[in-house]
Amino acid sequence: MISRRTLTLLALAASLSAPLTWAQDKFIVLASTTSTEQSGLFKHLLPAFTKTSGIEVRVVAVGTGQALDMGRRGDADALFVHDQPAEEKFVAEGFGIERRPVMYNDFVLIGPKSDPAKVRGNDIAAALKHLSGTKADFISRGDKSGTHSAELRQWKIAGIDLASAKPAGYKECGCGMGQALNIASSTNAYVLSDRGTWLNFKNRGDLAILVEGDKRLFNQYGVIVVNPAKFAHVKKDLAQKFADWVVSRDGQETIASYKIGGEQLFFPNANQ
């Protein structure tokens, strides 16, 4: 027969373990573009959210295309990405509840300071068209990320059909933004980058920003909660708290306060 003392100890153990199990479950999986992590934003943003909510955010940083695929498989609770047409399609297909704008920055064309291809300026289409006529190396992420999708749009605007004839120096790495920048740095190549990752990039070598300020380089980020109607295990309530917070005044102010060398990396625009 189990003694009263043993029953008391078992009850106490159960009461102590229940909150611990609950606490361990109070997290979400966030599939996100690499730029939000490699720019250093998440190290600044997510602790502030966790402090406010008690919810841990476990980030899987991949290209936006892969992040959306994770959402389609139910492998994430929320997405933080930057390819608006693809995001809107994701929601239209029923995989996401709603897409909400969060913040923006811009893309920049990086290349050797000496600019051997002579592309420096503020017209990205003209720069890529001129670059295509040279043998200069261009590193494409080639990973279906938001940055890769933006790059492909810019080549198309420039009148360059990559499907039929890639420029002589065009190389696809199938890699994240940080790795693409490292390759460009080691080979003195050109590369399209989001400004945030570039500002946080330490291994610049002889690289510099050569093209910036073109309105076509605008880079919008959005947040999406994965639809629990598709996947019952999605932590919709916790994910919604995260989505609501990043577009709230506190979340937006936290995003705006992230700077490197006094320069703001992302500009909140949830309410615009």
UniProtKB/TrEMBL annotation:
UniProt entry keywords in alphabetical sequence:
Signal
Range of residues in the leader sequence:
1-23
- PANTHER family named among the record's database cross-references: EXTRACELLULAR TUNGSTATE BINDING PROTEIN
PBP domain sequence ranges: 23-249
What is this protein identified as? Substrate-binding domain-containing protein
Name the InterPro entries on file. Answer: ABC-Tungstate_binding, PBP_domain
